[in-house]
C-alpha cells in the first residue's frame, strides 16, 4: 500500500463521515496511528502536527493541512485527487478504462487520460475548471509516465486511483465446508454483478478477471487481461452468449449451487 492510500485508511478511522477534518482532541491518537502506519520515526512530524493543532482557530485539523505535513508532495497530490474521484470496485474502473482503451492495447494517451479524468469526475458529480483538469492530467503524466512515451498502462491508472482492496482476497475459495464455500460465492457474485441481472457481462467480467489475475500475476497488462478473459469465457460460458451466468461461474470454481 502506498503512503497516500495508507494515510486515507487511517484518516477514515477519525473522519468516518468524510467531513474533511478531524477534531483537535483526536490528534494525539491520530498521530500515533499515522506514525505507526507509515513507519515513521521522525519526532519532527509529531511536533508539526502538535503545532498545527495548537494554532488551529476552530480546533479542527483539515485533511489538506495534515497531508502536507505527513506526505511527500506527490503523495499529497494523489491523496487529494483520490478524495475527489473515489472508485468502489474493479467493475467501475474497468468500465471506464474500456471506454478509452477501445483497441484493447492496454494503454491510453495523455489526451485520452484527460477525457478519462473528466468522465470520472462527472460520474461523481464533481465539477472542476479546465485549468484544474489540465493540472491533474499533466501532474499524473509527470508522476507515472516514467519512460515519457506519452502513455499510461492499466496498472499505472489502477495505482493512481488506488482501487480498494482486491475483493477476492476477503474470501477463501478452499473453505472447509460446502456451505462456507457457497456463502462466500454468493457474496463474490453479488459484488461483481453490479447490474443485478444474475449474469456477469462486459465490464463486470473485466472487473472479476482483473481481481482474479492480480491474485496470480500482480502486474497484469491489457493483453494479459484479454487473454485470461477469453480463457474464462471459453471455459465458463457454456451457452456461448458472451455472459457468465451465476451457475456457470459456480461450476468453474468447483461449486454446485443448490437448486
Automatic annotation (TrEMBL):
GO MF term list: calcium ion binding
Gene3D superfamilies (UniProt xref): EF-hand
Gene Ontology terms: cellular component: cytosol; dendrite; nucleus; terminal bouton
Location of the protein in the cell: Cytoplasm
Pfam families named among the record's database cross-references: EF-hand_5, EF-hand_7
Start and end residues of each EF-hand domain: 88-123, 132-167, 180-215, 223-259
SUPFAM superfamilies: EF-hand
GO process annotations (BP): regulation of long-term synaptic potentiation; regulation of presynaptic cytosolic calcium ion concentration
Keywords annotated in UniProt: Calcium, Cytoplasm, Metal-binding, Repeat
InterPro entries listed in its UniProt record: Calbindin_Ca-bind (IPR051001), EF-hand-dom_pair (IPR011992), EF_Hand_1_Ca_BS (IPR018247), EF_hand_dom (IPR002048), EFh_SCGN (IPR035798)
Name assigned to this protein: Secretagogin
